[in-house]
Amino acid sequence: MGKLQSIGRFLRHLFLPGVIGAIIFLATCVLGSEQVPDLPPLLPWDKIVHAGMFFVLSAVCYYDYYRLFDGNVHLKKWIFWCFFIPVIYGGGIELLQLFVFTSRSAEWGDFVADIIGSLLATVGAIYYLKYRDKPKKNLSL
User: What is the pTM of this model?
Assistant: First the structure.
């Protein structure tokens, strides 16, 4: 595979995580809190949305990294790029909300929800890696 093809393949696998990251940025920094619809106060919707967004971001990163390397992933690098980078991104967004986009509020709870979402995707990805090659048991009746 040529160097240009290799770069193109790499960029293709960065596209979807980049789009999701941009959507998260827009949703958490640019939109004012008055533009977010009110939801029933029964559940902490804000935290659920944060966890969901970062679950999707990390899950897409895991999937794309897995595809980029044809399933031959280096676990530490996989976790670095797909867990730690999204978590650092979430922390950066909270800092931007605190210092730049002051119409939004920065909260530790949002950052913790981001970590939980990325952690859930990480658990799922590791579980998949562990059990992807195990032979399925045939049940005979």
Answer: 0.75
